[in-house]
Amino acid sequence: MRQLFLLFLCFVLCTLLTPFAEAKPVCITRQELTARSTGIVQKYHASNGDAVRKGDPVIEFDSRLLRAGFKEAQAAVDAAKGNEELATDALQRLQKLQGGEAVSAQQVAEAKIRVSQARALRRQAEAAAERVKVQLDDTVLRAEIAGRVQGLPSILGMVVQVGQSLGSIEAGGSACASVPPAQRN
User: In the CATH scheme, what architecture does the domain 22-62+140-185 have?
Assistant: First the structure.
């Protein structure tokens, strides 16, 4: 029993005396340029061997249809906001008249439902516009690290598929950042 206690005590002391793992630098030396959506290459903002900084555009895809879709989505948001305002105004007018016998509780309840429906349609239109905006943002591949562009195919009009590799960016120096052990893969 005494040996078991000593073994347990040794384990506890070793655990307490072992220093916690510190954040160590993780170096990112390469970014794979991968298509996030299907599209047609419209423009190369960089060529093989060019130096790019973090955030610089590298490849741009045709976005005409998505821009038109975004305008349509914004118009739907505007229309939904207008319908919501009309429904809200109608409800407020009915609520003011409700004290008399001219308006029933049923009419006010129906007006509240119309306001809720109009609000839901506005939110739905806003979500649709946000989805198109995200897709539109995906039409430009940007450098996530500073470095030199390599392996770009230089064919304008080339059709690419989601996940297709379109070259890479190789870091020239060290692109290191301290990452706590819990966040490392």
Answer: Beta Barrel (2.40)
Q: Say how far apart CA 173 and CA 149 lie, in whole Å.
A: 14
Give residue limits of the domains in the chain: 22-62+140-185, 63-138
Q: Are strands 140-142 and 39-44 parallel, antiparallel or unpaired?
A: unpaired
Contact 87, 114 (CB under 8 A): yes
Domain 63-138: CATH class, spelled out: mainly alpha
Two structure tokens written together for 45: 């903002």
Taking the C-alpha atoms of residue 129 and residue 159, their distance in angstroms, rounded to an integer, is: 25
Q: Which residue has the tokens 């009009």?
A: 157
Tokens of 57: 């555009």
Provide the residue-wise pLDDT of the chain in tens; the chain has 185 residues. Answer: 566 555 555 555 555 555 554 555 556 789 999 999 889 999 999 999 999 999 999 999 999 999 999 999 999 999 999 999 999 999 999 988 887 778 888 999 999 999 999 999 999 999 999 999 999 999 999 999 999 999 999 888 999 999 999 999 999 755 454 444 444 43
